[in-house]
What does this fold into?
Amino acid sequence: MLAAERRDHLLGLLAREGKIVAKDVAAELGISEDSVRRDLRDLAAEGLCQRVYGGALPASPAVADYAARQTVAPDGKRKVASVAAGLVRPGSALILDGGTTALAVAAALPRDLACTVITHSPTIAAALLGHPQAELFLLGGRIFKHSAVACGAAAVEAAQNVSADLCLLGVTGVHPEAGLTTGDAEEAAMKRTLAARAADTYVLASSEKIGTASRFRVLPWEKVSGLITDADPRHAVVKQLTALGVKVLPAG
It folds into this structure.
């Protein structure tokens, strides 16, 4: 089989199965695992897969810069945001992550809602300036421009001194095996810290993130209260997550 044919075969496997196991592909095609791994390295370099131990998973499309991500699945993000905003109770404290879906949540919160919003995103804080009953706490630190959020030691230390009823967390990848992932190690650490400071953590994930993975794990499934997604409940990955005991709140 030519290299181009192997490439098409691997991409087809990713689309159909949601993962590639290198040793299985090698046995199926009668080639070495090293050849499969080389092919996967090439695909990963093009952003077409995320390599993991033993093979690969579909790469998340949510890895573009902040401005570009605002144009990705805006309807899905609004649907997710609407359900997420409904979880915020009057008088409660909310940790709101950064990113474009979280920005949609800020827009979906009722303007007269009395609550406390804790965020490490200057963009989120600015979006809530017009909410007169919302008290804002902005956690500072080094700004990670890709997601317009504060990360690093100073931000983590600040986050460790707050507590909240609810954390609404964004990720770039949602996968039954890889868990919840994102593309930057420091951002992943910050997300873990934020989630640990809330009684409940719900993950915000529009449908294009379902079944994909990024390089750094944020949390395993047992550390979150549930997932909010506009993905079809009949989606194979959503069914897998439900079978694993993950609470899925539909936002269709």
Remarks:
- The first strand starts at residue 20 and ends at 21.
- The longest helix spans residues 3-17.
- The CA atoms of residues 85 and 109 lie 5 Å apart.
- The mean pLDDT is 91.
